[in-house]
Amino acid sequence: MFSEERFAEAEGEVDKLLALTQSKGKAVLDLCCGPGRCAIPLAQRGFAVTGVDKTPLLLEKGKARARAAKAKIEWIEQDMRDFVRPGAFDLAINMFTSFGYFDEKEEDRTVLRNIFTCLKPQGTLVIESVGKEWLAKILEPIMSERLPDGSTIVRHQEILDDWTRIRSEWMLIRKGRAKSYTISHTIYSGQELKERLREAGFREVRLYGSLDGTPYDQNARRLVAVGEKE
What we know:
Blueprint (H helix, E strand, L loop, with lengths): L3 H18 L5 E5 L7 H6 L3 E6 L2 H14 L3 E5 L11 E6 L10 H14 E11 L2 H7 L3 E5 L5 E9 L4 E10 L2 E10 L3 H10 L4 E5 L14 E6 L2
Parallel strand pairs: 1-2, 1-4, 2-3, 4-5
Antiparallel strand pairs: 5-11, 6-7, 7-8, 8-9, 10-11
């Protein structure tokens, strides 16, 4: 999930993100930061970045990459449902389909309310995810990919609960051995995610089909929601 290619892509994604939001402040919350794919280039551009993630392994990888890049980042190991720092951030980001991993939808609402609390007045939230509309067009039950090291990733995907959730089983096959891991998460349409942000207190919510700011229409490959705290 976090190949070197994806790290390289993050450089351009961060520039597009900043152009899209026009954020004037320097305090950034990267919620579900993982190994620092976006946190590190943001820090290199002069932002004061706080990266929050509950997975120790990913945080350790992020810290190592940040040291190598000479990027200063505050790393916090905490569940996204629990992190709250009132009025501390000008910009909050949640990238790479990192929203909706809880069985209860009320927990998604809790996360959004917490983010709203964390933002300063006129602060901005960006959620970048896969949209239900695009997923319905391209979903295949079984997908496979050959990795550069010769390993193979096989992914089996299944829609659940009346098209509200998706379950994915990832299997890594390497040197004759296989390991699998299953994850499930809620899938949102553009309108559903927009309503969730408004419920959390965001008054101005815009949807895009990419970080380039393209429309969220039949050609949209990603769902990018931008919410403003008035």
